[in-house]
Specification:
The chain has about 270 residues and is of the alpha+beta class. Helices cover about 20% and strands about 30% of the residues.
């Protein structure tokens, strides 16, 4: 909403219209009433927001073992209904498409396409974009796979394990990457050498813009990182005691994140 209003004011744009859709999807939301911050109004049917565990992505169920629909103020997973009235193809990869289709969602024998997009429901059926769930975030117009970046970081000689996640920056659209890593104690970690490594193996938009050295990383399963607390703490130097670094795009290397830099980031 803030970016919308600032952008409209700065460039003297008379009208701004917004919409939400997916290439592989078959439903869309539209905001033609120019309500700031809203991607559309869910008054046409076919799209539902279901409540999920923000860490695992598991759907909350009611006593009948069906998913729970969001109420105004809730953030939930966007699901697109598949029925005889809709023309749905999905991905070119049939197996991948089938993995995204869920059955018996709100009633027996219904089915929906799981978009993996987290949307927020507002009063009067208005909807805003909240986040991309779990293993993907969007930065600089590109979708970044946290699993791919983690795999690359884990290949660095001095890193034992990493967790990559998206964090927000004030007055900036999307989320940028942040990495929390556990160092291999038998190998000396050198930040300059690591900086050269990420330049060689990652495109610019995938390089984590913030970097955190942790003694331990909590898991919720084999090799799956628990990231909800890491996301909440982000790069808040006021509460994090671990060493923190930020990516200096001009110097092309990680620099220590001190209070003066942190305050500049907070101010946008």
């Amino acid at each position: 909403k803030e970016i919308w209003e600032q952008f409209q004011s700065r460039f003297q744009i008379e009208h701004i219209y917004e919409f939400y859709g997916l290439t592989e999807g078959h439903r869309s939301l539209y905001n033609v009433e120019e309500v700031p911050g809203m991607i559309g109004r869910n008054n046409q049917g076919g799209v539902e927001l279901a409540k999920v565990d923000p860490e695992t992505g598991e759907f909350y169920k009611n006593e009948s073992d069906f998913c729970v629909k969001c109420k105004p103020g809730d953030i939930g997973m966007a699901l697109i209904k598949i029925d005889k009235k809709t023309f749905f193809i999905g991905y070119k990869d049939i197996e991948k498409t089938q993995k995204k289709i869920i059955h018996n969602v709100f009633k027996k024998n219904d089915k929906y396409f799981n978009t993996s997009d987290m949307l927020k429901l507002h009063e009067d059926l208005w909807v805003s974009f909240a986040d991309r769930f779990g293993d993907t975030f969007r930065w600089k117009g590109e979708n970044v796979s946290t699993l791919e970046v983690e795999a690359i970081l884990n290949s660095y000689k001095a890193i034992h394990m990493s967790a990559v996640y998206g964090v927000g920056i004030p007055n900036t659209e999307g989320r940028t990457g942040m990495a929390a890593v556990k160092i291999n104690p038998s190998i000396k970690f050198e930040i300059d050498d690591f900086s050269r490594f990420v330049i060689e193996v990652l495109p610019g938009y995938s390089i984590p813009k913030f970097f955190r050295l942790c003694d331990e990383l909590e898991t919720i399963g084999p090799e799956k990182m628990k990231k909800i607390d890491l996301r909440k703490e982000a790069y808040n130097i006021e509460i994090i005691k671990d060493p923190l670094f930020f990516w200096d795009s001009k110097k092309k290397q990680y620099m220590t994140l001190d209070n003066s830099v942190y305050q500049k980031i907070k101010e946008g």
